[in-house]
Design a protein that fits this description.
Shape: globular
Largest sheet: none
Number of helices: 9
Number of strands: 0
Length: about 160
């Protein structure tokens, strides 16, 4: 899978160590298993593949218990019926909000950290009315190339 050498570096410009990696490394990391764009989990396969590396730290008993369990197959089976007809950005956003936001992002990177220090976090962009409005915005207005939050930037809400 050959990529434009600058494209993979543009994905995460704020990660200086990533910028120093070779093109071969970037292709191996970001491109592994991404040949099947029809896979409903396509947008998140690199994340799931990387996370699955934690299995080497499981106890032998847990590995034996989970031996035949395929979490990704389970996840694919639980997707909404119409999921395959959604725009790829909408699919990726659904995976983030339904599966990663509540149990991982807000929990381990938000609430737990805040509560451990006696701080109650408020997340205005997670207000249900804001989320419902954002869900109705066409994908073409959410991104401009690789620049995220396009419509917020246009509204001068994000720098």
């Amino acid at each position: 899978m050959a990529h434009d050498p600058l494209l993979l570096r543009r994905l995460y410009p704020y990660l200086p160590r990533l910028q120093g990696q070779s093109q071969k490394y970037l292709e191996a990391f970001f491109g592994a298993g991404l040949g099947d764009t029809a896979d409903p989990l396509f947008s998140h396969l690199p994340r799931f593949r990387t996370t699955s590396g934690a299995k080497m730290f499981y106890s032998r008993g847990l590995r034996e218990t989970l031996r035949d369990y395929d979490a990704l197959a389970d996840l694919r089976a639980g997707l909404p019926e119409e999921f395959a007809r959604w725009h790829p950005l909408s699919q990726a956003q659904y995976l983030e909000t339904a599966f990663l936001l509540p149990g991982y992002i807000l929990s381990s990177q938000g609430d737990r950290m805040a509560m451990a220090h006696g701080v109650e976090g408020r997340f205005p962009f997670l207000d249900h009315r804001v989320v419902e409005l954002a869900a109705r915005i066409p994908p073409r207005m959410k991104l401009k190339g690789l620049r995220e939050k396009h419509i917020l930037r246009r509204a001068n809400l994000v720098v």
